[in-house]
Amino acid sequence: MTKKAVVLYSGGLDSTTCLAIAKEEGFAPYAMSFAYGQRHTAELEVAKANARTMGAAEHLVVEFDLRKVGGSALTADITVPKEGVGDDIPVTYVPARNTIFLSFALGWAEVLGAFDIFIGVNALDYSGYPDCRPEYIAAFEAMANLATRAGVEGAGRFAIHAPLIRLTKGEIIRKGLALGVDYGRTHSCYDPTPEGLSCGLCDSCRLRLKGFAEAGVPDPVKYADKF
To answer: How many CB atoms lie within 10 A of CB 208?
Structure first.
C-alpha cells in the first residue's frame, strides 16, 4: 500500500515542487493549505484550483485568522517592502507561522496514519525567516515524536522532510521542471494586484524571478512590474 504523506501546500513555487517530490518518492501526497487572513489570497485560490492536478490525493484547507495576532505585513496593515531582499528578518515574516502550520500537519498525519510530513522551506534563496532553517526542522521533528500518541506508543517515527532546504531557487525550479511541474499554475507574490497579477518587486517575486533567470527558463506567470 502506498504510504501517505502530508504536504504543506500554499500554491507557491516551493510547495508545489515539494508536492511533486513527495509523489516522485512514492508517497500519496495529502495536501494541506491555510486560509489564515493572509493578504495574498491569490496564492490560496491557486492552491484550491490546482492541488488535485498537481498530484494531491486529497486537499484540506484549514481556516483561522492570524490578523487577530498581526505583527506581519502579510496579516496586518503594514506595507510590503519592495526594495529588495535585505540582511534582517523582514516584516513579511509571520510570527510562528511554520510552527503553526506544521502542528496542524502533524495532527492530520496522526489521523491519516501517516508519519511523513513535507514542507518546502529553503535556507539559501529565502527572506531570512528563522522557521526555515535546518535546525528548526530538526527541532520540530524531535518534538513531534515526543508530543504525539503515535510517537509515544511506538506506532512509527515522524519525519519532517524539507527536500528544498539546501537548494538555490534555480536548482528548485530545474528539479520541478524535471518532475513535470507546471509553474504557470503557481503563485508566489506577497502583494498581488486586485486582478491577481504578481507585483514583481516584493521579496518573494524577486527571489522567484532570480531563480528562473538562474534556471535559464522564462517565468510563465504574469507580472505587473519587474525589478
So the answer is: 28
What residues does each domain of the chain span?
Answer: 4-215
Q: What is the mean pLDDT of the chain?
A: 94
Nine-digit cell string for 51: 492541488
Model's pTM, two decimal places?
A: 0.95
Between CA 38 and CA 160 the distance in angstroms is 24
Nearest to 185 by CA among 9, 49, 57, 55: 49
Q: Are 9 and 173 in contact (CB under 8 A)?
A: no
CB 59, CB 53: distance < 8 Å: no
CATH superfamily of 4-215: HUPs (3.40.50.620)
Q: Is the pLDDT assigned to residue 227 strictly greater than 70?
A: no
If phi > 0 it is left, if psi is from -120 to 50 it is alpha, else beta; for residue 67 that is alpha
Q: Which of 177, 157, 160 is nearest to 219 (CA)?
A: 177
Rounded Cα gap, residues 91 and 108, in angstroms: 30
Contacts of 139 (CB under 8 A, 6+ apart): none
Interacting residues of 215 by C-beta distance below 8 A, sequence separation 6+:
170, 171, 173, 174, 177
